[in-house]
Amino acid sequence: MIAGLANVAIVVATAVVMELIAAAVHRYVMHGFGWGWHKSHHEDHDHVLERNDLFAVCFAALSAALFVIGAWHPAVWWMGVGTALYGLLYFIVHDGLVHQRWPFHWIPRRGYLKHLVQAHRLHHAVRGRDGAVSFGFLYAAPLDRLVRQLRANAHAGRRQE
Ligand SMILES: [Zn+2]
Ligand SMILES: [Zn+2]
After folding, report:
1. What is the CA(53)–ligand 2 centre distance, in A?
2. Hey, where are the domains in the chain?
């Protein structure tokens, strides 16, 4: 029982850490030197896949590596479960609810999921690499704060030109 709870704690903690890592990677790598891959996600197109999906492949590889190492270290195996769970939630919220990359159409009309969708739409309000807001996927700041930040970024961007 105690061991089971410890494993659940590892899974939840890993998923939380993954959200922090994903938000940081999105902000500093994808909107930084990794823009070459991520750009495809900020452009309109009618392809099924995007070069940006390679980032998801990298995270899936990380999860797979944790499962392999976990064959010798059970705690690491549960970290692999947490990483895979995060990947699943990321796919449901980002690829599914926001970008509708699945065969059915459902948009949350209330609650936290609606908030996440609206916040990520604000992320896409900026087409270029700079000045974007809301880099997380399962956590987002209040919308009015994001809108204020977006305006301030646009203002700062204009001044730089
Ligand atoms: Zn982005
Ligand atoms: Zn997106």
Report:
1. 11
2. 2-160
